[in-house]
């Protein structure tokens, strides 16, 4: 895998064709749509704003493209999907998250589709695939982030239904979702968790504005459940499968988030190279300063190393192997490398890099979050050490 800020994917004709079409859409129609609606990263997301993007992306074949052909997708490999996710993030488009269906769409559902019953597929998931409904995933609580087993949301069996009570936070896509995949602890147990499909307009369910993250994006909701009745038919898998479904999703997503962050780092590197070429200081471009050249060299090398590492792990995932150790390593390395790249990008941009409204300033805030989200860097180190020690015995 050779270094390039605009990979051509010549080794994979299908991927090369998809990337070409995706870039055309992102730089053309979607860019025009965002300008027409004055969309910025801080623009509150609404169904009215996102639905046209879902429909057009589906018409172009991108919405749910990772799904098997029987569900309307193209059955992409993880590596091909990752390449598309990287392109989306590198495009600088605010609504790029809705092109493949990550914001409430089929990409948000992930591998949970495999656990759905025919009833659940028909009522909940196939409408998501078609862009008619949206979902969110509700696992995190105020005191149950990395330690998910500390969650207090509880499910009580009540005849042919369950009663759910609890308060979920950081439910991404919650502002546009019709239903949530909620993980709850079974009443009377300490270690038994189940997953439920909860209609967000059901009695006893309230969707509140979530905290605004440091990126400034309005994409989160709190889901408050107060004796909310959920039909037994909405149980995903069996009782006790909740963490298997929830954390299994997290394990794959841990690796699949990496290409998106690499795309953000790539975008920052592109912007910084342009800044270095065009910013005149003392009568000459910044790019002529050796100190700046060294920063650019370090940024590019760090990006290349993190990208190569990530795609090697994705290739293993495509063979059917679950690269648990490597996924921890990739998440740790990509998070830290991207943060260092953005820190240097801000430094080279100077005052402009400190100014709200400047893209590099936003990217810095966005990338900083990844050192915490989907497991902190410290949690990744714990996982790496634990697996290494297990291998050594």
What's a concise summary of this model?
The protein is of the alpha+beta class and 393 residues long.
Average pLDDT over all residues: 95
**Number of distinct beta strands:** 10
The general outline is: globular
Number of domains: 3
Domain Acyl-CoA dehydrogenase/oxidase C-terminal: 240-388
Cofactor: FAD
Family: Belongs to the acyl-CoA dehydrogenase family.
Domain Acyl-CoA dehydrogenase/oxidase N-terminal: 21-132
Report on the architecture of this protein.
The chain is α+β, with helices and mostly antiparallel strands. It folds into 3 domains: 13-113, Butyryl-Coa Dehydrogenase, subunit A, domain 1 (Orthogonal Bundle); 135-240, Butyryl-CoA Dehydrogenase, subunit A, domain 2; 244-392, Butyryl-CoA Dehydrogenase, subunit A, domain 3. Helices cover 47% and strands 15% of the residues. The protein contains 10 helices and 10 strands. It has helices at 13-36, 47-59, 78-90, 106-109, 118-129, 242-278, 290-318, 324-349, 359-369, 377-392; strands at 135-138, 154-158, 161-172, 179-186, 193-199, 205-209, 220-231, 235-236, 280-281, 284-285. The strands form 2 sheets. Strands 1, 2, 3, 4, 5, 6, 7 and 8 form an 8-stranded mixed β-sheet that branches. Strands 9-10 form a two-stranded antiparallel sheet. Strand 4 (179-186) and strand 5 form a beta hairpin.
